[in-house]
Amino acid sequence: MRPLDGMITVPGGRFRMGTDDRDGFPADGEGPVREVLVRPFAIGACCVTNDRFAEFTGDTGYVTEAERLGWSFVFAKFLPGPLRRTSQRVPETPWWFGVAGAFWRCPEGPGSDLSGRADHPVVHVSWRDALVFCRWAGVRLPTETEWEYAARGGLDQARYPWGDELTPGGEHRCNIWQGRFPVQDTAADGYRGTAPVDAYPPNGYGLFNVAGNVWEWCEDRWSAPGQPPGRGDDAERVMRGGSYLCHESYCNRYRVAARTRNAPDAATGNLGFRCAADV
Where is pLDDT greater, at 6 or 128? Predict the structure, then answer.
């Protein structure tokens, strides 16, 4: 094991967390806006890459939950016809398929690999997988409050990590769906699927890709208005930041205050993590 590269120390302070934006998802507990005090901490400038995760598995022999289960969720458009015909479509979200043999090293299932993606974020990693990696690296997952504070980059109540316009001056600042979801992605922002972890300019604190690219696990158990936090090891966990599949027509959760959740054993082709640490 060696220390993680690229950790940034973020100064503590007070900030206004959440949003009352009407374009958001009130049921997700994005609001109300409230003032929160944050202690100084360190956080990864980037998500954990495929290369770094490979170093971890090579050092420890760790086998991810997707590998043990034997399958994971892959976006339909990434699957060749034969594999799509033998995989299980998710009825509620038909753009997802449960694919046997999909895991972090074969992100689109059998026959796929990480060629050209060494510096892309590792995906198909569960919350529990991420915890094991963090213990190996001597770090931890960020709390949800830390994540939002760092993602805002010092801006107060801005919609995105860089301001209020999605494409200021016509410039793409994040990797999200461009076109008509889920049938056409024009890749106008430069990417279909994941992008390198340092794609696009960083925010004011030096963090890359805190909007889009891949969802990021946080330490916290999920809670929302009218819901107590989950209990036990199986409680759902918070995810932040949106992914390359987010589109304004159905899921504009690439906004900095947006949030959602997943089961701690869940793994998908658009879900990764970044690390944090005490200072």
Answer: 128
Q: Check residue 268 and report its DSSP letter.
A: B
At 24, the pLDDT band (50, 70, 90 cuts) reads: confident
Q: What is the C-alpha to C-alpha distance for residues 237 and 223, in angstroms, rounded to an integer?
A: 9
Residue pair 220/249 in contact (Cβ under 8 Å)? The answer is no
**pTM for the whole thing?**
0.95
CA distances from 108 to 52, 195, 232 (A): 19, 15, 32
Alpha helices, H only, the chain: 50-60, 65-69, 81-85, 127-137, 144-152
Q: Which residues pair with 238 in a beta bridge?
A: 261
Question: Residues 68, 73, 76, CA angle at the centre, nearest 5°?
Answer: 145
Say which CATH topology domain 7-278 has: paralog of FGE (formylglycine-generating enzyme) (3.90.1580)
How far does Cα 92 stand from its chain's mean position? Answer: 21
Q: How far apart are CA 146 and CA 125, in angstroms?
A: 21
Return the HEC string of 220-261.
EECCECCECCCCCCCCCEEEECCCCCCCCCCCCCCCCCCEEE
Residue 206 CA to residue 235 CA, distance in Å, equals 32
Helix (H) or strand (E) holding 8: strand 7-10
- Is 60 exceeded by the pLDDT of residue 3? no
pLDDT level of residue 1 (50, 70, 90 thresholds) = very low
Q: What's the confidence (pLDDT) of residue 4?
A: 57
Number of neighbouring beta carbons within 10 Å of residue 78: 18
Residues in the chain: 279
Averaged confidence pLDDT in the chain: 94
Task: Kindly list the domain boundaries of the chain, sorted by start residue.
Answer: 7-278
The pLDDT of 91-113, averaged and rounded, is 96
